[in-house]
Amino acid sequence: MENKCGCWALLKRGVRGACKPSASRDSANTIPRTSLVYDAATETRYLNASNRELCPPNEAKLSSDNPDPPPTDNKSPCQLLQFTFQELKSATGNFRPDSILGEGGFGYVFKGWIEENGTAPAKPGSGITVAVKSLKPDGLQGHREWVAEVDFLGQLHHPNLVKLIGYCIEDDQRLLVYEFMTRGSLENHLFRRTIPLPWSNRIMIALGAAKGLAFLHGGPEPVIYRDFKTSNILLDSEYNAKLSDFGLAKAGPQGDKTHVSTRVVGTYGYAAPEYVMTGHLTSKSDVYSFGVVLLEILTGRRSMDKKRPSGEQNLVAWARPYLADKRKLYQLVDPRLELHYSLKGVQKVSQLAYNCLSRDPKSRPTMDEVVKALIPLQDLNDLAILSYHSRLSQQARRKKKSEGTQQHTNAASKSIRDSPLNTSKQRCR
Ligand SMILES: Nc1ncnc2c1ncn2[C@@H]1O[C@H](COP(=O)(O)OP(=O)(O)OP(=O)(O)O)[C@@H](O)[C@H]1O
Ligand SMILES: [Mg+2]
Fold first, then answer.
1. Where residue 140 sits, what CATH number does that domain have?
2. Does the keyword ATP-binding apply (predicted)?
3. What is the mean pLDDT of residues 393-417?
4. Residue 232 CA: which ligand 1 atom is closest?
5. Are residues 117 and 156 in the same domain?
6. Is the Cβ atom of 245 under 6 angstroms away from ligand 1?
7. Are residues 231 and 366 in the same domain?
């Protein structure tokens, strides 16, 4: 597979390359090492981020008989820096409110600056720009997600996974330090910005995110991401997509096992129906979530949107009939794109989304197949606007021939009404 240049070798336990030992950090301040997979944690915790809690809270209460898994050693994951709380406080200007990049279920994310090659804070605008995620002090559950994040991202390296630079664990403080992703999340670009994300960027982002998932699924110890959604796809200055947030990630089935059984966690609107029903998790659950994100990219609609009329609130349910009918496909396209999208690209993306969203998990493609399907879509230049203009001029020429001095504007408005591309009012400007 193209660009499958991530690093899986580090997953093997005991591989500790260039860990930076930190001064004055005793063993109590190092990460509790667990297996790569945090099974006990993911089996028992529930997500208090309201939009991610998919199981009834009473089923998923943290219990005191489920203690924090013991540290297996006191080493840090390879290459991660260990920061003190004071260093990160200074790096973010005392966690200034105006440096907040966003807020998720587990706390705020701040912009900060650190010196190159070290943990020392730097002046704003100098050194390396970082994103510092500070977990709300909500006890065991937050800590477990924090550990899962450090455990996975500390060891998985790929151009389409966000880079975890380091962490801080001090008393009940849990922080994570990531590379700063200049353009923020895909969610921001699709749903919060006034300028629509161009079609070519949408394809590029879908492809990058697909490569990230394919890497996770394709390694010697497959990982199921479990929280694939637009807010977890971050973008660098060139719109390269990187997956963030591995707090819910889980090791895939081993050997001849077909699935892993877990409690149902994730985000409403993205989780695969069979996983929600049975708790059986496979990599095809991620493929379903990818299908939902692909639909969001295509339509500019959120996977769940309570502000829309009933019947349109659940994106997948609303879009299915359109996906299944070639003549209706273009009604799905984000109206803010107007006619600036590839005609063939829309067909292919719709087909791919339809396959990823298949109710039968076995019929869904693998992420490798998704990547292969998306690669050629980057080069398509058959923009709807070009087709529209050529239709327009053809019709105008024909009209001129037959009617002599017929006004051009009449031809234009008729062609808009007749065009199969223009089924949505917004695109008929
Ligand atoms: N490395 C980063 N660089 C730049 N911005 C970031 C970075 N990480 C997170 N953000 C911003 O902070 C926001 C919050 O991120 P966070 O992962 O905490 O929550 P979320 O993904 O929005 O929600 P949830 O808790 O449901 O996963 C993101 O949407 C993004 O805008
Ligand atoms: Mg997130």
1. 3.30.200.20
2. yes
3. 58
4. 21
5. yes
6. yes
7. yes
Number of domains in the chain: 2
Q: Find out whether the beta carbon of 52 lies less than 6 Å from any atom of ligand 1.
A: yes
Q: Are residues 256 and 304 in the same domain?
A: yes
Distance 97 CA to ligand 2 centre (A): 19
The verdict on 160 and 146 lying in the same domain is yes
pLDDT, tens only, 342-360:
999 999 999 999 999 999 9
Distance from C-alpha of 195 to C-alpha of 122, rounded to nearest angstrom: 33
Average pLDDT, stretch 328-333? 94
Cα(309) to centroid(ligand 2), Å: 28
Ligand 1: distance of its center to the CA of 212 in Å? 17
Tell me the residue type at 224. I
Whichever domain contains 273, its CATH number is: 1.10.510.10
Instruction: Report residues near ion ligand 2: CB below 5 Å.
Output: 104, 232, 245
Percent share of the chain, pLDDT over 70:
74
pLDDT for residue 199 is more than 60 = yes
Average pLDDT, the chain: 78
Task: For the chain, state the CA radius of gyration.
Answer: 24
Q: Is there a domain that residue 282 lies in? A: yes
Does any ligand 1 atom lie closer than 6 A to the CB of residue 180? yes
The model carries a pTM of 0.79
Question: Helical H runs in 219-282?
Answer: 273-278
For residues 137 and 144, is the Cβ–Cβ distance under 8 A?
no
Residues 215 and 115 in one domain: no
Return the residue whose CA atom lies nearest to atom 27 of ligand 1.
104
Q: Which token pair is 44? A: 């028992």
Nearest residue to 427 via CA among 330, 351, 347: 330
* Cβ contact 295:319 at 8 Å: yes
User: How many angstroms separate the Cα of 316 from the Cα of each of 278, 286, 287, 355, 362?
Assistant: 20, 15, 14, 12, 19
Judge if 147 and 201 occupy the same domain. Answer: no
Domain coverage including residue 255: 184-384
227 is known as an active-site residue: yes
- pLDDT confidence band for 188 (50 / 70 / 90): very high
Say which of 227, 245, 286, 368 is annotated catalytic: 227
